[in-house]
């Protein structure tokens, strides 16, 4: 097995890590649209799916970080302790 898939994944990760939440969400929406169109060949669809999963993980991490920041702000302001958001 060649190192190409790992290199492609690292390339995705580096570009995605630099994205804001909004940029990543927009890119994820484009990936979903392309996959739902059914116009992509199988290999391209798999690559798109991998990119979409990386984008999803990035968005989830950004949301979790934002949640933690808000929680610190509320607790630091002497406000009531917050409860975690319910799982979807």
Automatic annotation (TrEMBL):
* A Gene Ontology biological process term: DNA catabolic process
InterPro entries on file: Exonuc_VII_S, Exonuc_VII_ssu_sf
- The yes or no answer to whether the keyword Cytoplasm is present is yes
Q: Where is it localised?
A: Cytoplasm
- What is the uppermost EC class here? hydrolase
| The EC number(s) this enzyme carries | 3.1.11.6
A GO molecular function term, named singly, is: exodeoxyribonuclease VII activity
Function, as annotated, reads: Bidirectionally degrades single-stranded DNA into large acid-insoluble oligonucleotides, which are then degraded further into small acid-soluble oligonucleotides.
Family statement: Belongs to the XseB family.
Return the protein name: Exodeoxyribonuclease 7 small subunit
Q: Which organism is it from?
A: Rubrimonas cliftonensis
Q: Which gene encodes it?
A: xseB
